[in-house]
Amino acid sequence: MKNKSLISINDYSKEEQLEVLKVAEEFEKNPVQNILSNNVIASLFFEPSTRTRLSFESAISRLGGKIVGFSEASNTSVKKGESLRDSILTVANYSDLIVMRNPLEGSARFASEISPVPVINAGDGSNQHPTQTLLDLYSIKKTQNKLDNLNVAFVGDLKYGRTVHSLVIALCNYNTTFHLVSPVELKLPSSVKMNIKEKNLKYYQYTELDDNVIPNVDVLYMTRIQKERFSDPLEYERIKNYYILKNDMLENSKENLRIMHPLPRVNEIDINVDKSPKAYYFQQALNGVYVRQALLSLILGLK
Ligand code: CP
Q1: SS3 of 202, please?
Q2: Less CB within 10 Å around the terminal CB: N or C of the chain?
Q3: DSSP annotation of 172
Q4: pLDDT tens per residue, range 210-243
Q5: SS3 assignment, position 80
Q6: Each residue of 55-73: pLDDT tens digit?
Q7: Can 101 be counted among the known catalytic residues?
Q8: 292 lines ligand 1 (CB under 6 A)
Q9: Which domains does the chain have, with CATH numbers?
């Protein structure tokens, strides 16, 4: 993985993904290690973020590395009309690795093709979010003690949810049975579903989140409706409260069920669910630190 950019989850083989999870386990046991003290990481966030940006920064800090970057492009020379190309070529002079989130699909791939230093895609529009996928795999493995042969439900905005796209693709390596729950307008794109079909895996599609789904699954992966991707605000208003998970809906769920969510949550999980032992989304966000420590160390050749 040394010097290897991560733009789409498939850029890393199954074995490489599992290597990241293995190293992340080491960091969970021993999170403070001064191995990045000679490295500078650029953190370029052209789109808002809490977890991804701050968990990368936490990961870098715990490893003794330095961070340069920005959390909004309006404070940079992009505001004066600088192109992404020129920004990347400049920032690559100042850093050993670039972490970038950008609202444009394909922008991270473009950056990786012109950058002399490796690039990690921290989310490009509705396309992919591969580091979220690695922490999701880590969270599933940790809570289910395996990755193979699980029933996983994806609920909400399967059309625009980049975390869903990357995780569906990754789970196709593990004989997953998929339960795809969305409004008709927000179904999983056929380009992503193709991965399930190519592996002849089972998948079921639903519009309702109810006892046809919940009692049958090991992981319930909730997502928010992505307001910022809608061209018509009225369409968002119509759909925004389509799914709200409440405690009573979990009555017939399996003992091992874990509720995951990449966050941020809007109102698709009632806050009373947070007290359920099956709620795992805040621990999931913590796992992001260990996984990002692992990824940075492997790409920089320090593990
Ligand atoms: N999961 C995730 O990408 O969250 P942020 O948008 O807060 O980074």
Answers
A1: coil
A2: C
A3: G
A4: 999 999 999 999 999 988 888 888 888 888 889 9
A5: helix
A6: 999 999 999 999 999 999 9
A7: yes
A8: no
A9: 9-128+288-299 (3.40.50.1370), 130-285 (3.40.50.1370)
